[in-house]
Amino acid sequence: MDQDHDFSQGGMARNILSMAVPMTIAQMVNVLYNITDRFFIGHIPGTSSLALTGVGIVFPIINVITAFTNLFGMGGAPLCAIARGRKENDLAERIMGASCFMLILTALVLTAVGVLLARPILFLFGASTDTFPYASAYFGIYIWGTLFAMLSLGMNGFINSQGFGRTGMVTIAAGAAVNVVLDPILIYGLDMGVRGAAVATVISQVLSAAWVMRFLTGPKALLKLRRRHIAWAPALLKDTVRLGFSQFVMSFTNGLTQFAYNKALLGLGGDVYVGAMTVINSVREVVTMPVNGITGGAQPVLGYNYGAGAWERVRRGILITAGICTAYTFLAWGVVFLFPEQLILFFNDSPELVEVGARMLHIYFFGFCFMALQFSGQSTFTALGKAGYAVFFSLFRKVVLVVPLIFLLPCFWGVEGVFWSEPISNLIGGSACFLVMMGTVWRRLGRAEKAPAQ
């Protein structure tokens, strides 16, 4: 079985796609967790727009929770893949156990903070007096599933790092399928409204977490999650946090930018613009899903070959990843440009929200192809353990570019300026990330490849 998951054998394109296809499907299904909630909430009779806007307030907070999940999950998984490439399986298992310990500890802390400070947190993130009841109803239940959400997402990376892409896909798919089935039953059938969506999500996360833990402790796993390894391990966690910090920053700054969007839009346009932003974020999640699957599938392959010293294969893998991401984002931009109203209508049929959302969607996704450069460059830095670069470009695009532009551009273009912040940051941040990756990592790999012949 270990031979079947040896990424140093076979073509790089085949290895990447063998991981990327199931991971893309997993990403698609994972998005269904929140997208399904938004779809059904956005069509609740009588209160759909306010309910959708209220739940949209919660998603920046969920991004913060996801940031801590990525800190230990996506920080440990690439290190696990690199250690496996070096045949250091005991070290790989200890990395996995230490990450699991920190996911559990962090989840308990975040749950306590969320329960005790729910009201001030929701108003801080942009809730109004009209939308707070809906935000509170959703968040008050969702926060109790934090432990299961963090374990299912964070530990699933260790399944993928062993080459079990299909199993990782099933992990997400099982929970999402339950969520899809339960949402209409609880929201409409039992008339639970927004609370029903939160209950369905938590139940699905419990099932996903149970599946992940069962596989990692079972006989099929190449690297097992052993009880003795689930412990505080500062030496291992130092490298895990160092590498995972880039993913933490990416998710945390996603939450920060959504927070900034909500604050700016609430003041400039009111709840309808916050609702439009909620729908646009939903569309963005769907559109970026395949790119996340491609880069997520490439990371264990690149990390394994990097650990094995197969420099030429790593370079080839970088080009394949960047090429696929660029081609896809061009296609996605075209779809959004041609069908903006249809995409908005999927989530809400309020005429005012559809009109505003369609106009803003065109602006927000302008030049979306430049995000391919950010995705491929960022994932390469992460896969090869270059945490410093990954962290810098995460902060550069979101904190240095997006957040200031959200508040600066409206001075010239009004409320539309808020949405122009995204394409401008994509062009500058994406180009800078990819060019620096090619000038550093790519060149060093080339020199390492030629070294034996010199």
Description:
This protein is mainly α and 454 residues long. It has one domain. Helices cover 82% and strands 0% of the residues. It is built from 17 helices and no strands. The chain has helices at 12-41, 48-85, 89-116, 118-124, 132-142, 146-160, 165-189, 194-216, 234-268, 271-307, 311-338, 340-345, 351-364, 371-383, 387-408, 410-413, 416-450. The chain is globular, with a radius of gyration of 21 Å. The two termini are 37 Å apart. The relative contact order is 0.13. The model has no long low-confidence stretch (mean pLDDT 82).
Helix content: over 70%
The number of distinct structural domains comes to 1
Please state the overall shape, judged from the principal axes of the Cα atoms: globular
Q: How many angstroms does the end-to-end distance come to?
A: 37 Å
CA radius of gyration is: 21 Å
Average pLDDT for all residues = 82
H/E series: HHHHHHHHHHHHHHHHH
Number of strands: 0
Main pleated sheet: none
Class based on secondary structure composition and strand pairing: mainly alpha
List keywords for this structure.
454 residues, mainly alpha, 17 helices, 0% strand, globular
How are the elements arranged and paired?
Layout: H1 12-41, H2 48-85, H3 89-116, H4 118-124, H5 132-142, H6 146-160, H7 165-189, H8 194-216, H9 234-268, H10 271-307, H11 311-338, H12 340-345, H13 351-364, H14 371-383, H15 387-408, H16 410-413, H17 416-450
Helix pairs in contact: 1-7, 1-8, 1-10, 2-3, 2-5, 2-6, 2-9, 2-10, 3-6, 4-5, 5-8, 6-7, 6-8, 7-8, 9-10, 9-15, 10-11, 10-13, 10-14, 11-14, 11-17, 13-17, 14-15, 14-17, 15-17
